[in-house]
Design goal:
Number of domains: 2
Bound molecules: flavin-adenine dinucleotide
Distance between the termini: 22 Å
CATH class of the largest domain: Alpha Beta
Helix content: 25-40%
CATH architecture of the largest domain: 3-Layer(bba) Sandwich
Number of strands: 18
């Protein structure tokens, strides 16, 4: 019967990092992965480029993780973005920081990240068991027996659960960990999609499919009250809207949609101008270039497709001349530029979410060691833990940081 000091269940970034770190403490470690390869989800991150972390400060990391932020403090202090850079550079893979603070491998290829992780696993003599789905955890006298789908059994002194969330199931994260942990009396907070595209009611949004808007502001309202506004990039799709800004706001919007059927958002297409400033500019332009068609005047400010949409929503004929436009019509155009309205009626299912919100309750995990407060010798790492961060490399840093801390403590124990 194979016996190990530490068994790590799940070969994603969190599990791989946990296995490497535990093994560096001279422990006999096995990494158990149900798929035939490691890190399948990592390969699709950042559109295949892997936005592995962000150059934000620790304070910002803690802030953006919201309710989970304080819990993650010891993890981030143990292994942070600078440690990540050093970790990969030690094996010859340089990371680069882009203007928005997002950090990627210099190769722009996620497989280079996996390649380095595999070198570390080999160097630290971690046994990797592929095509090995863990289906049951038995505990006797504080020692663990892991039962695999093929009925083999692995014994271990300590285990680290790193089976991820429940989105993009083809990558392997299908929620097995949550089922096993419920049987060990752990509380699983409601699993919800986070960082997920939104479905909108308006047909014009679908007609704009493929259009990306950079540096716009999205404001969202609940019960006619402004709740939040943020700047960023959005993408129109065949069902509604996506892109980094929408994905980030989706965490809150999905939460609100639990209690109401729809939610209004407004896209400020020209956030750099106050409404009064833009009104003055439009008045001047409509006067000076009064002989031009409205659609040609507006093309100075907006893309062709948006001009068509705005004129159609204002019910103004696109060939109307600037000097034939009434004050009321100009104000309608202005209102639409400063707040193109969309009605969010849902989100894509959790399968299409980049991250799962919810998971093992942080009240039941010691934040300093990531050991369970219910089952001694059981540790957690990665997305399996309740909460999630925004786009920008924050979630992979969470996976590596918690993987490091869990691996270190399981390795020391
Ligand atoms: C399309 C997409 C793009 C993304 N882009 C980014 C990005 O650019 N930057 C960023 O920070 N984050 C990104 N994320 C999020 C990021 O991928 C996750 O936060 C991260 O992968 C979580 O790591 P993890 O190790 O906890 O879980 P996972 O990566 O999900 O790994 C879990 C592993 O456990 C294995 N497993 C599950 N059950 C069992 C079992 N019963 N027995 C054995 N093994 C099991 C799975 O096969 C899997 O390999 C993206 C996610 C998606 C879907």
């Amino acid at each position: 019967m194979p016996r190990y000091d530490v068994a790590v269940i799940g070969g994603g970034p969190a599990g791989i990092m946990a296995a490497i770190t535990a093994a560096r403490h001279k422990k006999n470690v096995i990494l158990i992965e149900k798929k035939g390869c490691l890190g399948r989800k990592v390969l699709i991150t950042g559109n295949g480029r892997c936005n592995i972390t962000n150059n934000a400060s620790i304070e910002r990391f803690i802030r953006v993780f919201g309710k989970q932020g304080n819990f993650l403090k010891p993890s981030f202090f143990s292994f942070f973005n600078n440690d990540m850079i050093e970790f990969f550079e030690q094996k010859g893979l340089r990371l680069k920081t882009e203007d928005n603070g997002c950090i990627f491998p210099i190769t722009d290829n996620a497989s280079s990240i996996i390649k380095i992780l595999k070198i570390y696993l080999l160097e630290n003599k971690v046994d990797v068991n592929y095509n090995a789905r863990t289906v049951k955890i038995d505990i006797k006298k504080n020692k663990f027996s892991l039962i695999l789908e093929n009925n083999t059994c692995i014994y271990s002194e300590r285990i680290i659960m790193a089976t991820g969330g429940i989105s993009y199931k083809k990558t392997g994260s299908s929620g097995d960990g949550f089922k096993m942990l419920k049987k060990l009396n752990h509380t699983i907070q409601l699993l919800k999609p986070a960082l997920v595209p939104l479905i909108v009611k308006e047909k014009f949004a679908k007609d704009l499919k493929g259009l990306t808007l950079q540096g716009v502001k999205v404001v969202y309202h609940k019960d006619r009250k402004k709740i939040k506004s943020e700047l960023g990039d959005i993408l129109f799709t065949h069902f509604g809207v996506s892109g980094p800004l929408v994905l980030d706001l989706s965490r809150d919007i999905v939460f609100c949609l639990q209690f109401q059927k729809k939610l209004e958002i407004f896209i400020d297409l020209k956030p750099e101008y106050k409404i009064e400033e833009l009104e003055k500019i439009l008045i001047t332009e409509f006067n000076i270039k009064g002989a031009l068609k409205l659609k040609n005047i507006l093309k100075q400010f907006l893309s062709n497709r948006l001009v068509e949409t705005i004129l159609s929503l204002s019910a103004i004929h696109p060939n109307r001349k600037g000097n034939q436009t009434s004050n009321e019509e100009r104000r309608t155009v202005l209102r639409l530029i400063k707040g193109l309205p969309l009605t969010v009626i849902g989100s894509l299912p959790i399968e299409n979410a980049m991250v799962t919100d919810g998971g093992v309750s942080i009240d039941e995990i010691n934040s300093k060691t990531l050991e369970s407060k219910i089952v001694p010798g059981l540790y957690f790492a990665g997305e399996i833990i309740d909460g999630c961060g925004p786009c920008g490399g924050f979630n992979l840093q969470q996976a590596f940081s918690t993987g490091y801390l869990a691996g270190k403590n399981a390795g020391l124990g």
